[in-house]
Amino acid sequence: MKRNYVLFGCLFVLLVLSSSLWGYPTFFGTDGIYRTYSARATEMGYLTFGLHGDYSYADVAGSDSTRNFGNIHTFLGYAPITFFEFALAAQIQMRYFHRPHTEDTYDFAFKNLRPIAKLGIPVFSDTINQVGFTLGTAGFVNIPWEPIARTDSQMVEKGFIGTVPRSASFGALFLADF
Asked: Which residues of 56-65 are buried (b: 16+ CB within 10 A; e: fewer)?
């Protein structure tokens, strides 16, 4: 019986936490959380911006060398009218090979630019009970930028994954929120 209370308590806490996070901007500058879009649009006149980074490294077996890898995600979003928002997101990549007592190899370049437009219309909204249903759509374009070509072969020799040539891509999402 006690196990059921613990399970119910954990589910309740998870539900409360996940429902309270819907209003934060995504990596892409629109309403949502982390990399998940929300059908709701940011309120009219709101400006969102953010900067998020991640970093990792790996030791090279049998040596004192390390491979370092990092990404910076930055965005700027704005809602000029009710139910509509647009944003511009950019990703910057860093690769760095460190070997003691020798010259290091690195590159630092823009990886991706993503303009986004989103429309979110509330179908049903109950402000007293704080429940509602929203339908929306988002369109975006991924504009890839490649790392500096002169250092890519050096980075592959050091164990990094090489640059994969990409072309621009378009996408659209149908969104629904409860």
From this structure: eeeeeeeeeb
Which residues are CB-contacts of 165 (< 8 A; sequence separation ≥ 6)? 146
Q: Is 7 left (phi over 0), alpha (psi -120 to 50) or beta?
A: alpha
In whole angstroms, how far apart are CA 178 and each of 128, 131, 135? 15, 7, 9
Number of CB atoms found within 10 A of residue 70's CB: 15
For 76-87, write each residue's pLDDT tens digit.
888 899 889 888
Contact 75, 90 (CB under 8 A): yes
> Which secondary structure element, helix H or strand E, spans residue 68, and what is its range?
strand 66-81
The amino acid at residue 149 is: A
Residues 6+ apart with CB under 8 A from 130: none
Q: What is the pLDDT of residues 73-120, one digit of tens each?
A: 888 888 899 889 888 888 888 888 888 888 777 777 777 888 989 898
Helix or strand holding residue 13 (H, E): helix 2-20
Report yes or no: 30 and 166 within 8 Å, Cβ to Cβ: no
Report the pLDDT value the prediction gives residue 151, as an integer from 0 to 100. Answer: 57
